[in-house]
Write a structure and sequence with these properties.
- This protein is of the alpha/beta class.
- It has 2 domains: about 170 residues, HAD superfamily/HAD-like (Rossmann fold, 3-Layer(aba) Sandwich), CATH 3.40.50; about 90 residues, no CATH class.
- Helices cover about 45% and strands about 15% of the residues.
- It contains 10 helices and 8 strands.
- An 8-stranded mixed beta sheet has the order 1-2-8-7-6-3-4-5, with helices on both faces.
- Helix 6 links the parallel strand 4 and strand 5.
- Helix 1 packs antiparallel against helix 4 and helix 2 runs antiparallel to helix 3.
- The radius of gyration is 19 Å and the shape is globular.
- It starts with 5 loop residues before the first strand and ends with a helix.
């Protein structure tokens, strides 16, 4: 494995970046800012494996798990419906009769809610402090970007209703000019569309936009317009250190920089804004 230089927890993958021009910043939500939905991958994987193992021509459970994990990972950052469309296709490929992808999405949301309802309730009642459900350093970097007059946006593949509610519970909404989430008319929303809209409305060059995310999609999409991609490889369970599985995939997607979380925000911003 290639070894990349690391300082203050920050790994620079592409040191040749054209830096110092950033005016706008796009943040993913789940896993990048919010930890409310920590564990969603396990919930989705378990649901999908059960359904695929019920198909007539299924492989071994171990093989099914590997297949499911791979396409969940590759579609992370896209709207949830795309993972459910893929599930339907996988069931059909194994001789099954899939339901409508929206049905699978509803089943998944119900199962996920069972896992995270206590977090939502705790935040609403005040028994759980927002800091406990934020990727460490999130508020600090948002405050620093606000001081620098950088316009920030939030975009998530989770349904917009949930994103708006959870961003409010975490107290991060005021930092963002706009909050974007998945729509029922899923073809009219994507992170790529959001990025293109930001660039067009503000007449930006690619290097004037930075994206922070923990999924393939936002990293690939920001690099597609010549922007700067910061991969957030947080270990969501322990809230400390790097998740190597995330890190490897973020680098493969094209991330320019890898951080464990936003604790090293001062060093990161000095690098991005070419400050002494």
């Amino acid at each position: 494995m290639t070894q990349y230089p690391q300082e203050n927890g920050i790994q620079i993958i592409h040191p040749e970046l054209d830096l110092g021009h950033i005016r706008h910043a796009l943040f993913d939500f789940d896993g990048t800012i919010s930890l409310i939905r920590e564990g969603w991958q396990e919930v989705m994987e378990a649901m999908m494996v059960e359904l695929l193992m019920a198909a007539p021509e299924h492989e071994t459970e171990s093989d099914i798990k590997s297949i499911v994990r791979e396409f969940i990972t590759e579609l992370t950052g896209k709207q949830t419906i795309y993972q459910m469309i893929q599930l339907s296709e996988e069931i059909a490929m194994r001789g099954g009769q899939p339901a409508d992808p929206l049905v699978y999405k509803q089943i998944y949301h119900a199962q996920l809610l069972e896992r995270i309802q206590h977090r939502l309730d705790g935040l609403e009642s005040g028994q759980l402090h927002p800091d406990e459900m934020l990727v460490p350093g999130s508020l600090e970097i948002l405050n620093r970007l606000k001081e620098k007059k950088i316009t920030c946006y939030l975009a998530s593949g989770t349904d917009e209703t949930y994103v708006v509610n959870e961003a409010n519970l975490l107290g991060v909404t005021p930092y963002f000019k706009a909050v974007y989430g998945a729509l029922d008319d899923y073809k009219n929303f994507s992170k790529r569309m959001v990025i293109q809209r930001i660039i067009q409305e503000n007449d930006l060059k690619g290097v004037e936009l930075v994206a922070f995310g923990d999924g393939y999609v936002e990293i690939e999409d920001i690099k597609g317009v010549g922007g700067i991609a910061v991969g957030v490889a947080t270990n969501e369970d322990t809230r400390t250190g790097v998740n190597e599985w995330k890190r490897t995939r973020l680098i493969r997607a094209g991330a320019d920089i890898i951080i464990p979380d936003f604790r090293p925000h001062n060093a990161l911003l000095r690098f991005l804004f070419v400050e002494e």
